[in-house]
Design brief:
mainly alpha; 0% strand
Protein backbone atom coordinates (compact mmCIF):
# COMPACT_ATOMS: atom_id res chain seq x y z
CA UNK A 1 0.00 0.00 0.00
CA UNK A 2 2.74 2.41 1.01
CA UNK A 3 4.67 1.60 -2.16
CA UNK A 4 1.62 2.38 -4.27
CA UNK A 5 1.12 5.72 -2.53
CA UNK A 6 4.77 6.64 -3.06
CA UNK A 7 4.50 5.71 -6.73
CA UNK A 8 1.43 7.90 -7.14
CA UNK A 9 3.03 10.83 -5.32
CA UNK A 10 6.36 10.59 -7.13
CA UNK A 11 5.28 12.76 -10.10
CA UNK A 12 3.94 15.39 -7.69
CA UNK A 13 7.24 15.46 -5.79
CA UNK A 14 9.12 15.81 -9.06
CA UNK A 15 6.85 18.62 -10.25
CA UNK A 16 7.20 20.42 -6.92
CA UNK A 17 10.99 20.15 -7.16
CA UNK A 18 10.94 21.59 -10.68
CA UNK A 19 8.63 24.47 -9.73
CA UNK A 20 10.47 25.34 -6.49
CA UNK A 21 13.18 27.56 -8.10
CA UNK A 22 10.54 29.62 -9.91
CA UNK A 23 8.51 30.10 -6.72
CA UNK A 24 11.59 31.04 -4.72
CA UNK A 25 12.68 33.63 -7.28
CA UNK A 26 9.23 35.24 -7.28
CA UNK A 27 9.06 35.29 -3.47
CA UNK A 28 12.57 36.75 -3.20
CA UNK A 29 11.97 39.65 -5.56
CA UNK A 30 8.40 40.29 -4.41
CA UNK A 31 9.27 40.27 -0.71
CA UNK A 32 12.85 41.59 -0.51
CA UNK A 33 13.28 43.75 -3.61
CA UNK A 34 9.82 45.12 -4.39
CA UNK A 35 8.73 44.85 -0.73
CA UNK A 36 5.09 44.37 -1.71
CA UNK A 37 2.55 41.75 -0.72
CA UNK A 38 1.67 39.19 -3.35
CA UNK A 39 -1.54 40.30 -5.07
CA UNK A 40 -4.49 37.87 -5.08
CA UNK A 41 -2.55 35.42 -2.92
CA UNK A 42 -5.39 32.90 -2.63
CA UNK A 43 -5.97 32.79 -6.38
CA UNK A 44 -2.24 32.43 -7.01
CA UNK A 45 -2.01 29.53 -4.56
CA UNK A 46 -4.92 27.79 -6.29
CA UNK A 47 -3.28 28.42 -9.66
CA UNK A 48 0.04 27.09 -8.39
CA UNK A 49 -1.65 23.94 -7.15
CA UNK A 50 -3.30 23.44 -10.55
CA UNK A 51 0.04 23.95 -12.29
CA UNK A 52 1.65 21.44 -9.94
CA UNK A 53 -0.98 18.78 -10.62
CA UNK A 54 -1.06 19.53 -14.34
CA UNK A 55 2.71 19.31 -14.69
CA UNK A 56 2.80 16.05 -12.74
CA UNK A 57 0.07 14.52 -14.92
CA UNK A 58 1.74 15.79 -18.09
CA UNK A 59 5.13 14.30 -17.22
CA UNK A 60 3.53 11.02 -16.17
CA UNK A 61 1.58 10.94 -19.42
CA UNK A 62 4.80 11.34 -21.37
CA UNK A 63 6.39 8.47 -19.47
CA UNK A 64 3.58 5.97 -19.95
CA UNK A 65 2.15 7.10 -23.28
CA UNK A 66 3.96 9.44 -25.62
CA UNK A 67 7.54 8.18 -25.33
CA UNK A 68 6.66 4.47 -25.61
CA UNK A 69 4.33 5.19 -28.54
CA UNK A 70 6.99 7.10 -30.47
CA UNK A 71 9.66 4.51 -29.83
CA UNK A 72 7.34 1.62 -30.72
CA UNK A 73 6.38 3.19 -34.04
CA UNK A 74 10.04 3.91 -34.84
CA UNK A 75 10.92 0.26 -34.14
CA UNK A 76 8.01 -0.89 -36.32
CA UNK A 77 9.00 1.28 -39.28
CA UNK A 78 12.66 0.24 -38.98
CA UNK A 79 11.60 -3.42 -38.92
CA UNK A 80 9.34 -2.89 -41.93
CA UNK A 81 12.36 -1.64 -43.87
CA UNK A 82 10.47 0.78 -46.12
CA UNK A 83 12.26 4.12 -46.02
CA UNK A 84 9.54 5.94 -47.94
CA UNK A 85 6.85 5.12 -45.40
CA UNK A 86 9.27 6.08 -42.62
CA UNK A 87 9.97 9.47 -44.22
CA UNK A 88 6.27 10.05 -44.88
CA UNK A 89 5.46 9.25 -41.26
CA UNK A 90 8.30 11.53 -40.06
CA UNK A 91 7.05 14.45 -42.16
CA UNK A 92 3.43 14.06 -41.08
CA UNK A 93 4.46 13.64 -37.45
CA UNK A 94 6.41 16.90 -37.53
CA UNK A 95 3.67 18.71 -39.45
CA UNK A 96 0.79 17.44 -37.32
CA UNK A 97 2.36 18.07 -33.93
CA UNK A 98 3.47 21.57 -34.93
CA UNK A 99 0.11 22.67 -36.28
CA UNK A 100 -1.39 21.72 -32.91
CA UNK A 101 1.39 23.35 -30.87
CA UNK A 102 -0.22 25.85 -28.45
CA UNK A 103 2.88 28.06 -28.32
CA UNK A 104 2.90 28.43 -32.11
CA UNK A 105 -0.81 29.28 -32.17
CA UNK A 106 -0.22 32.02 -29.60
CA UNK A 107 2.82 33.48 -31.39
CA UNK A 108 1.14 33.39 -34.82
CA UNK A 109 -1.94 35.15 -33.46
CA UNK A 110 0.13 37.85 -31.77
CA UNK A 111 2.29 38.30 -34.88
CA UNK A 112 -0.84 38.79 -37.00
CA UNK A 113 -2.19 41.38 -34.58
CA UNK A 114 1.07 43.33 -34.54
CA UNK A 115 1.37 43.12 -38.33
CA UNK A 116 -2.14 44.56 -38.67
CA UNK A 117 -1.45 47.35 -36.18
CA UNK A 118 1.70 48.34 -38.06
CA UNK A 119 -0.06 48.42 -41.43
CA UNK A 120 1.76 45.45 -42.95
CA UNK A 121 -1.52 43.60 -43.51
CA UNK A 122 -5.18 44.54 -43.40
CA UNK A 123 -6.84 45.15 -40.07
CA UNK A 124 -9.79 42.87 -40.78
CA UNK A 125 -10.23 39.59 -38.93
CA UNK A 126 -9.95 37.72 -42.23
CA UNK A 127 -6.59 39.30 -43.06
CA UNK A 128 -5.17 38.54 -39.63
CA UNK A 129 -6.47 34.96 -39.69
CA UNK A 130 -4.95 34.45 -43.13
CA UNK A 131 -1.59 35.77 -41.95
CA UNK A 132 -1.63 33.65 -38.79
CA UNK A 133 -2.66 30.48 -40.62
CA UNK A 134 -0.05 31.08 -43.31
CA UNK A 135 2.62 31.47 -40.63
CA UNK A 136 1.49 28.33 -38.80
CA UNK A 137 1.43 26.25 -41.99
CA UNK A 138 4.86 27.53 -42.98
CA UNK A 139 6.31 26.56 -39.62
CA UNK A 140 4.53 23.19 -39.70
CA UNK A 141 5.91 22.45 -43.17
CA UNK A 142 9.37 23.43 -42.00
CA UNK A 143 9.23 21.13 -38.98
CA UNK A 144 8.02 18.25 -41.15
CA UNK A 145 10.95 18.88 -43.46
CA UNK A 146 13.30 19.16 -40.48
CA UNK A 147 12.22 15.80 -39.08
CA UNK A 148 12.74 14.18 -42.48
CA UNK A 149 16.26 15.64 -42.63
CA UNK A 150 16.93 14.44 -39.09
CA UNK A 151 15.75 10.92 -39.90
CA UNK A 152 17.94 10.87 -43.01
CA UNK A 153 20.86 11.94 -40.82
CA UNK A 154 20.23 9.02 -38.47
CA UNK A 155 19.91 6.56 -41.35
CA UNK A 156 23.00 7.86 -43.14
CA UNK A 157 25.16 8.58 -40.10
CA UNK A 158 25.86 12.21 -41.04
CA UNK A 159 27.67 14.14 -38.28
CA UNK A 160 25.08 16.31 -36.57
CA UNK A 161 27.44 19.24 -35.97
CA UNK A 162 28.18 19.66 -39.67
CA UNK A 163 24.46 19.68 -40.47
CA UNK A 164 23.72 22.26 -37.78
CA UNK A 165 26.63 24.50 -38.80
CA UNK A 166 25.50 24.44 -42.43
CA UNK A 167 21.97 25.29 -41.37
CA UNK A 168 23.00 28.27 -39.29
CA UNK A 169 25.18 29.58 -42.10
CA UNK A 170 22.02 29.62 -44.24
CA UNK A 171 20.15 31.39 -41.41
CA UNK A 172 22.83 34.09 -41.13
CA UNK A 173 22.90 34.69 -44.88
CA UNK A 174 19.09 34.86 -45.12
CA UNK A 175 18.98 37.27 -42.17
CA UNK A 176 20.89 39.82 -44.25
CA UNK A 177 18.26 39.71 -47.03
CA UNK A 178 14.98 38.99 -45.23
CA UNK A 179 12.59 41.84 -44.34
CA UNK A 180 13.37 43.25 -40.91
CA UNK A 181 9.77 42.75 -39.82
CA UNK A 182 9.96 38.97 -40.19
CA UNK A 183 13.38 38.24 -38.68
CA UNK A 184 12.34 38.32 -35.04
CA UNK A 185 9.24 36.23 -35.77
CA UNK A 186 11.39 33.73 -37.67
CA UNK A 187 13.83 33.37 -34.79
CA UNK A 188 11.02 32.93 -32.27
CA UNK A 189 9.29 30.40 -34.53
CA UNK A 190 12.31 28.15 -34.17
CA UNK A 191 11.80 28.12 -30.42
CA UNK A 192 8.05 27.69 -30.15
CA UNK A 193 8.10 24.57 -32.30
CA UNK A 194 10.05 22.69 -29.64
CA UNK A 195 7.38 22.66 -26.96
CA UNK A 196 4.92 20.40 -25.18
CA UNK A 197 3.51 18.38 -28.08
CA UNK A 198 6.37 18.20 -30.57
CA UNK A 199 9.32 17.37 -28.34
CA UNK A 200 8.15 14.09 -26.74
CA UNK A 201 7.13 12.35 -29.96
CA UNK A 202 10.05 13.62 -32.02
CA UNK A 203 12.58 12.68 -29.35
CA UNK A 204 11.05 9.22 -29.01
CA UNK A 205 11.18 8.80 -32.79
CA UNK A 206 14.89 9.60 -32.93
CA UNK A 207 15.81 7.36 -30.01
CA UNK A 208 13.66 4.52 -31.33
CA UNK A 209 15.27 4.70 -34.77
CA UNK A 210 18.81 4.87 -33.41
CA UNK A 211 18.06 1.88 -31.17
CA UNK A 212 16.61 -0.16 -34.04
CA UNK A 213 19.33 0.46 -36.64
CA UNK A 214 22.49 -1.58 -36.37
CA UNK A 215 25.60 0.51 -35.90
CA UNK A 216 23.78 3.52 -34.44
CA UNK A 217 24.30 4.73 -30.89
CA UNK A 218 21.07 6.00 -29.28
CA UNK A 219 23.02 8.56 -27.26
CA UNK A 220 25.04 9.88 -30.21
CA UNK A 221 22.56 9.43 -33.04
CA UNK A 222 19.17 9.36 -31.32
CA UNK A 223 19.22 12.99 -30.28
CA UNK A 224 19.45 15.99 -32.58
CA UNK A 225 16.04 15.96 -34.23
CA UNK A 226 14.91 18.80 -31.99
CA UNK A 227 17.86 20.89 -33.17
CA UNK A 228 16.66 20.47 -36.75
CA UNK A 229 13.12 21.34 -35.68
CA UNK A 230 14.44 24.58 -34.15
CA UNK A 231 16.68 25.51 -37.07
CA UNK A 232 14.68 24.87 -40.23
CA UNK A 233 11.62 27.01 -39.22
CA UNK A 234 13.85 30.09 -39.14
CA UNK A 235 14.81 29.46 -42.75
CA UNK A 236 11.25 28.79 -43.88
CA UNK A 237 9.70 31.77 -42.07
CA UNK A 238 12.28 34.20 -43.46
CA UNK A 239 11.58 32.81 -46.92
CA UNK A 240 7.86 33.25 -46.20
CA UNK A 241 8.49 36.87 -45.27
CA UNK A 242 10.45 37.47 -48.48
CA UNK A 243 7.45 36.25 -50.46
CA UNK A 244 4.57 38.01 -48.73
CA UNK A 245 6.20 41.28 -47.53
Amino acid sequence: MLKAVVEVMRPLFGAARDLAPIVLVILFFQGLVLRQPIPNLEEMLVGLALVLVGLALFVRGLEIGMFPLGEAMAHAFAKKGNIYWLLAFSFLLGFGTTVAEPALIAVAGKAAQIAADSGMIGTTAEAMDEYAIGLRLTVALSVGTAIVLGVLRILSGWPVHFCIMAGYIIVVVMTMFAPQEIIGIAYDSGGVTTSTITVPLVTALGIGLATSIRGRNPLLDGFGLIAFASLVPMIFVMAYGMVIL
